[in-house]
Amino acid sequence: VEGVEVKVWQVPEILSEEVLGKMGAPPKTDVPIISPQELAEADGILFGFPTRFGMMASQMKAFFDATGGLWREQSLAGKPAGVFFSTGTQGGGQETTPLTAVTQLTHHGMVFVPVGYTFGAKMFDMEKVQGGSPYGAGTFAGDGSRWPSEMELEHAFHQGKYFAGIAKKLKGSSA
């Protein structure tokens, strides 16, 4: 989206290398680690995370728990926010994960921007396994070896473009 700059960060890891190894977690990328304060600089935020037992992974929850100072100052109030996610199985949280994540956004006064059914008819395709929901783009990771399908990637791209357009409009209306 013209005029929109995107930055990608990862939250700090809270599990030891030993535990991560036993879980079969992939190696960390060189994506920079974000601090809670950096959230306040953004005009809008799309949070992406893996799911554990139907809700965001503990690393993400720990990161949100560290945003108390931002909450106290209401630094994120009014900022648009959305979510995307991966789950291990079809019953693993494609809807419960974003629903439970909304509580974090709500307490900060953020404006939740779901993707809805704006992706169109592709959301109703039942021929192939695909993640995602009206809450956000999603993928099924299985045991960690499955990569997002072309359809899931298209849904994610659509969500990013849709979200960026709304964030841009909201920023323009407050200027």
UniProtKB/TrEMBL annotation:
Coiled coil: none annotated. Its cofactor is FMN. Residues 1-163 form the Flavodoxin-like domain. It is an enzyme of class 1 (oxidoreductase). GO terms for molecular function: FMN binding; NAD(P)H dehydrogenase (quinone) activity. GO terms for cellular component: membrane. Its EC number is 1.6.5.2. It catalyses: a quinone + NADPH + H(+) = a quinol + NADP(+); a quinone + NADH + H(+) = a quinol + NAD(+). Belongs to the WrbA family. This is NAD(P)H dehydrogenase (quinone). It comes from Phleum pratense (Common timothy).
